[in-house]
Amino acid sequence: MIITKADLIEYLKADFGVQEMKYPLLSRLTLGENYAMFSYIKNLRYLEYYINKKQKLWDKVFYYYHLMKHRKKCLKYQINISPNTIGKGLLLMHPGFRRIGAYMKIGDYCTVLPMVLIGKKSPLSDTSCCVIGNHCYIGTGAIIMEPVTIGNNVIIAAGAVVTKDIPDNVVVAGNPAKVIKVLENVL
């Protein structure tokens, strides 16, 4: 959770580090997709900072500025990630639809590809929660229906539909998602 300016800098460095941009200025000038995704994440981190900070008058101004910018970027990039849901080192590959709601908790250094939906099984449930561990990879078109807990170092294949808990260090695929491989020699 981003509370202090030092936390904000730590999160931004981790997020920038996973983007693998050799020339960020050139990427920004040419409107490269890596920079576009990083700009979305950067604004999200600033929004989280101003949400969690004890607000004075100027902090409220910055909060509303980043909130409006977040809403604009959500529409532009078709990404809807709620603040305070994702750990540091988030990697969004390519623009495209992603929805990560407010009741999610995603760990550090996770990769989320386009067309990913993480949502509720039932619209009537208010207490459900989805917890995804560290170093997870969520493939294109994956659907994760909460409440589920996904362990660390998990690879969710493209098009998988996750409806049950997943242990650490596995690869899952299919509809419904099943463990197809146990990973060895991981971090």
Automatic annotation (TrEMBL):
Gene3D superfamilies: Hexapeptide repeat proteins. PANTHER family: SIALIC ACID SYNTHASE-RELATED. It catalyses: L-serine + acetyl-CoA = O-acetyl-L-serine + CoA. GO terms for biological process: cysteine biosynthetic process from serine. It comes from the Bacteria. GO terms for cellular component: cytoplasm. PROSITE patterns: HEXAPEP_TRANSFERASES. Belongs to the transferase hexapeptide repeat family. It comes from Bacteroides cellulosilyticus CL02T12C19. This is Serine acetyltransferase. Pfam families: Hexapep. It is an enzyme of class 2 (transferase). Its EC number is 2.3.1.30. Transmembrane segments: none annotated. One of its GO terms (molecular function) is serine O-acetyltransferase activity. Keywords: Acyltransferase, Repeat, Transferase.
